[in-house]
Every structure is written in C-alpha cells, then in structure tokens.
Amino acid sequence: MLQDKFGRRFHYLRLSITDVCNFSCEYCLPDGYQCDTSRDFLSLNEIKRIASAFAQLGTSKIRITGGEPSLRKDLPQAIRACATTPGIKQVAITTNGYKLPEHIDSWVDAGLTSMNISIDSLDPRMFASITGHDKLDVILRGIDRAIELGVTVKVNAVLMRHFNQHELSSFLQWIKTTPITLRFIELMQTGDNQLFFDRNHTSGMPIKEQLVSDGWQQIIRDKAAGPAQEFSHPDFAGRIGLIMPYSKDFCASCNRLRISALGKLHLCLFSEHGLDIREYITDDDTQRLQEELTVLLGDKKSTHFLHDGYTGATKHLAMLGG
C-alpha cells in the first residue's frame, strides 16, 4: 500500500497523457497552448505499466487527464489499458468535452466509469467568452448522452468574482432535474495568474453556508474520492461539491498522486519539481517502479503551502489536469 509518513494512503492516481489543450480559458491558458519543443508523451505501453504498478500498490482509481486528453487519438486504448488492469475499479477522465457526443460511446465501451467536465457558465455567451469556444450546447448534449450510458458525471465550475459569481441560482436550477455533481472550485493562484487571481478569487465558504442553511446535507467521502466536500438535498437530482484548497486541513485527506504526460511523479499538484520515473517503466517488470514509488513517497509534504503564496511548478491551471 502506498502510504506517506503522515498516514495518508493513496488510492487515486491522476495520469496525464498530454499537456496540449485546444481551449484558451481566461483563467488558465488565455493565450492558448504554447510549446516550443517536441513533447515525448507517455506511450500506451508506459501507461499500462504505470497502471499495473500503482494497482499492485493499492491504487483503485485512475483519472486520465491532460491538457485535453481527447486530443490523443488513442485515448480509448488508454482508457482500456487502465480499465483492464487488475485492481483498478474506476477509470475517470477530465475533459473539456468539445466533441463529447462523438466520443462518449467509444470511451464507455473502453471501460470509462466517470467523467469530469468544465463548465464555468451556463450562459452561452459567457461560456464562449471564458473558453474562447462556442461549444456549450455540444457539451450539454454530450453530458446527457453520458448520463444515458450510466457514466457518473461531475461538472467543474471555477468561481470567479467578475465572471460567474452571480450564476449560483442558474446552476442550482440545472441540477434540480439533472443527476450530476456540480463542483465549485476556488480559483487558485499559479505562477502566471497573479493579477487575475487578485481580481477574481472568491471563497467557497459563503456557498457552503448557504447550502447548509437551505437544508443540504454533507456526504461522507469514499476512500478514492477527490478533494470536494459534497452535499445532497432530497429535492434535487444532482449534488453540489465544493473544492476549497485554501480551507483549513484541505491536505489532511489527500489521497492522490499525479504523473505528468512526460513521466514525472508529482507528490503534490503544486510540487516544485516532478520526479522522473520514466527509466523505471521501460519493460513489463514493474517491481523497480513499485520500489521507487515507495521510496519517493517518503518526501511528500504535509501541505501545499498555498496560503503562503507558494505555487511551486504550477505555472497555469492546465498543469493541474482538470
């Protein structure tokens, strides 16, 4: 079992398979994806070996992330590689959903069980303004199809004071009859968004207080669940989640490790440097990789230090994998 010196166990791996993204979200990549060098992303065989090694160490959930993972044509094969690994019970994906109606059936056929999609506004004009793409209708149709296929759907909305702070009522109306989990995420400071962060950061605590006041009940987290505090209400088909990285003890329940698309282990999403593990995934014998992971985990810190303005190697939110 992967366990650090603080007693935290890691059942959940975020596995990035590309850092390329085709959206230009205002808070993430306002100038679009920029890359001056060729990128040697993880191969399918490397993905299989990583999944196998982590599964043998107790990981039960893998989330495939990017960038935008669907820009890789072999995404269905990557999903299948994870889903068919003994010990892996859940395979999720984080996507912007730009061609979701075209892709979702093949992803489910490959073994996808859950999906996170970013929708920061239900106003089509605001959505296009934030993302640079007029795709809201396409994404919503894709979500409806995913629900039909039995996929667990979570929708992420980054809270931004000057963009969507006033849309809570619209989101609540949507989940009145739509069985998704809508997760509000506090805007996080990264290496290149200081001015935007200062103008737009807003706490999720007022939303939590309003939910509790309106009769929403907090749900007990599963061992492989993400960092959200989730709430349910008997009058709503959907749930509400709050991801508040600046809240007290946010890191105490950390259960996730991250591997970048270039094969580097990040013990924290905000860790300063990725730890290169690529030399340990050159063949199907995963014992060396398991041993190295166990050793490296000893360096995991107790917290992300965001409160001190520390953003580590995270230059933009796309690096967090959605």
Automatic annotation (TrEMBL):
Protein's recorded name: GTP 3',8-cyclase
Q: Please state every residue range assigned to the domain named Radical SAM core.
A: 5-228
Question: According to the UniProt entry, what is the EC number of this protein?
Answer: 4.1.99.22
Q: Which cofactor does it need?
A: [4Fe-4S] cluster
**What family does the Swiss-Prot or TrEMBL record give for this protein?**
Belongs to the radical SAM superfamily. MoaA family.
Q: How does it assemble?
A: Monomer and homodimer.
Question: Where along this sequence does the record place binding of [4Fe-4S] cluster 2?
Answer: 251, 254, 268
Identify one Pfam family in the record: Mob_synth_C
Keywords, alphabetical: 4Fe-4S, GTP-binding, Iron, Iron-sulfur, Lyase, Metal-binding, Molybdenum cofactor biosynthesis, Nucleotide-binding, S-adenosyl-L-methionine
Q: State the reactions this protein catalyses.
A: GTP + AH2 + S-adenosyl-L-methionine = (8S)-3',8-cyclo-7,8-dihydroguanosine 5'-triphosphate + 5'-deoxyadenosine + L-methionine + A + H(+)
The pathway it acts in is: Cofactor biosynthesis; molybdopterin biosynthesis
Which amino acid positions bind [4Fe-4S] cluster 1, per UniProt? Answer: 21, 25, 28
Known function: Catalyzes the cyclization of GTP to (8S)-3',8-cyclo-7,8-dihydroguanosine 5'-triphosphate.
Species of origin: Paraglaciecola chathamensis
**Gene (name only):** moaA
**Entry binding sites for S-adenosyl-L-methionine:** 27, 67, 118, 188
Q: How is the cofactor bound?
A: Binds 2 [4Fe-4S] clusters. Binds 1 [4Fe-4S] cluster coordinated with 3 cysteines and an exchangeable S-adenosyl-L-methionine and 1 [4Fe-4S] cluster coordinated with 3 cysteines and the GTP-derived substrate.
Question: Which residues does the record give as GTP binding sites?
Answer: 14, 63, 94, 154, 256-258
